[in-house]
Amino acid sequence: MRNLSPVTYIVSIMMVLLSIFMAIPAVLFLGDASANTTAFTYPAIGVLAAAVIGILLTRNRSHRLQPRYMFVLTVSSWLIISILCALPLYYSNLDLSMTDAIFESFSGITTTGSTVLSGLDAMSPDILLWRSIIQWIGGIGIIGMFVAVLPFLGIGGMRLFATESSEWTEKALPRMKSLSRGLLFVYCGLTLACILIYWASGMSLFNAVNHAFTTISTGGYSTSDQSMGQFDSNLILFESSIFMALGSMPFFLFVRELHGQHWVLFRDQQVRAFLGLLVVAALVMTVYRLWMHEEHPVDLFVSALFNVTSIVTTTGYASEDYLQWGSFTSVAFFFLTFIGGCSGSTSGGMKIFRFQLSFMVLREQFRRLLHPRAVLTRNFNGRAVSDEIIASMIAYVFVFLMCMAVMTLCLSLMNVDLTTALTASITALTNVGPGLGPVIGPAGNFASLPDAAKWILSAGMILGRLELLSVIILFSPAFWRT
Fold first, then answer.
1. How many CB atoms lie within 10 A of CB 337?
2. Is the pLDDT at 462 greater than 70, yes or no?
3. Which positions ≥6 away from 122 have C-beta within 8 Å?
4. Could you give the CA distance from residue 463 to residue 475 in angstroms, rounded to a whole number?
5. 217 closest CA partner among 247, 188, 254
6. Does residue 451 register a pLDDT over 80?
7. What is the model's pTM?
């Protein structure tokens, strides 16, 4: 691990792009009396200067990445970018502590959506835009990481979705560049479509841009403490449900659709299971609320579909406090928190495919009990599922549960109640955003938690976003041996 120049060079390039994004709110709101111009300008200049120095120091060295360096690049880039994104928040007129600024930034970049801020309706527009921008940056970063890094490293069974463009070889480089351009085109295209539809449905252009950024990235930051409930529109809630679902589908399948492989998206087993789950869960909650003598079935279905989609896709929007719907729905939302969207999307969670593989293994074990000598095969989307993939999936689930237990215990040591400690840990690791209970539920936020708890949850957000194993392996002594 003596030569980290490829990592330094690539992170420096990312920092150049980040400095450009930092300058956008300063330029757009230059004449606004409430703007935080210097809070964006000075960090942008500092980040750009540091990036230029990093590029100059490594420009003449080999930039070829080996697998071991890719772990370091993945973790270091997310940590560095998350910390740098906190600078405008810290130096703004919000008077945030460094802990709160870091928490808000980590939540934004990882598209978790948890927040320590309140009074969003009266907040400076440049800060609101910056929160949306960092979630949008995080969303495209997640897709790029999935395509270029995680399948190659075999993290948590994601090798199942590897393509030729996931290989870091000279032969695959042109294909990777082509796929990257296609992914960026799809991501920007969906964002633009979402902006236009929100705008046409009654949002102001500012709200449409902000909410499109955080919808497609499945991040969930809003411009109001009421989240999407501020618009009081079934049409907007339904549109948001559709775009959250689109943001949670495999983006490389969108690219294949654009290249003429029609209906490949809806032939995917992940996508069909994901869409089926959203519809069934929304219908069950609608029927339950009708049984509880609530009226207006259309309103109930739209509300249920929106909030279910928000939780399953790990977006974290809310149209109302769904914990008031009854104990059944509260428990249902707790379990939906674990699931997540499809692999290769902007959503977090454990991902649909891991649940599908788990059912596949369970079914296989039942068959072996009945037919001990039977030769059984595993297939997913027409591809064989190896024992290596099953082993990596089991390792991921085990590590997830261990991290959840350790984080919950640590939070409980700070006198955080069980509901808050448990659901905060889960929502951090799954990148959902809101938890359960009066403190961090859809009607609350994370501001009242102790500073130490916010640092633990910030670490949990990064762990969850990077699929756990790619971070934990850096703490292995064997990793750092030559």
1. 23
2. yes
3. none
4. 13
5. 247
6. yes
7. 0.90
